[in-house]
Amino acid sequence: MSVPAAYVGVILIWSTTPLAIRWSGDGLGFLLGVSLRMSLGFALVAAIIAVMRTDWPRERAALRVYAISGAVLFVAMTLVYWAARHVPTGWISLVFGLSPLVTGLLAVRYLDEAAPGAVRLTGFALAFGGLVLVFAQGFELDGGAVLGLAAVLGGVVVHCAGAVWLKSAMGRIPAISLNAGTLAFALPLWWLLVVVAGEPVAEVPPHALGAIAYLAIVGTALGFPLYFYVLRQVAASRVALITLVTPVIALALGAWLNDEPLGARVLGGAALVLGGLAVYQFGARRERRRAAFGTLKAVNET
Length: 302
What we know:
Blueprint: H1 3-24, H2 30-52, H3 60-83, H4 89-96, H5 99-110, H6 118-141, H7 143-169, H8 175-197, H9 206-233, H10 236-239, H11 246-258, H12 264-301
């Protein structure tokens, strides 16, 4: 598969995922919703591996990667699923738009990438200001909205830390096998939470079942392998650029299909976040060019 096609696929899937997450919990509760989604997704991925006879490494190093990736997925997705009950789905995608900034900062420490210069720091400040505006809108709704935004932000940090670690640790494990191994370690944790929490199950509307099926087939069986594939082929900070586009689509879908509010603060915050991301990425490209020019100049002088 071409990298651009996989990249666009991830954008489309991530744009629709927050709304599907919200719908999947109707009548079921968020824990049962995520557990059913991941279980069905795991069954599909395992079947694909069996049919395609894809290599599924099980040595100690691979199991360690699966375990850590599974823990990251479990924590990040649990926080997001819980938050989807309290905040508009477009806001979830907007907060996830901060991923490039968080990833960039973590990559400096763990992937030996260059520290951000003045332009990138300016972009970070703009995006942070946008996040403050969104949180201010959350305070006007209720306390649950603020806690939901905080949960999403926590999920972003966990997700980005996992992406940076996987970039250097996953080696040659096939993307779909990494997906299966990740789910194999995460699923028992979700089902344990389902049993412990004992969420009541009400009448389940058809759109909830449809959302679970969509998330399992498109979001998990297709989306996760595409994401891991892109993560392997593209620099970690550029992978996070996907979130520059997804908030716009997600906000529009939430307002159109779920009657979610788009107040002035949310729109202003979105503009600042996306503008900050654009400035940040412009600064990153500028710094890469300067570094390349400096290297070339040093080579010529020798």
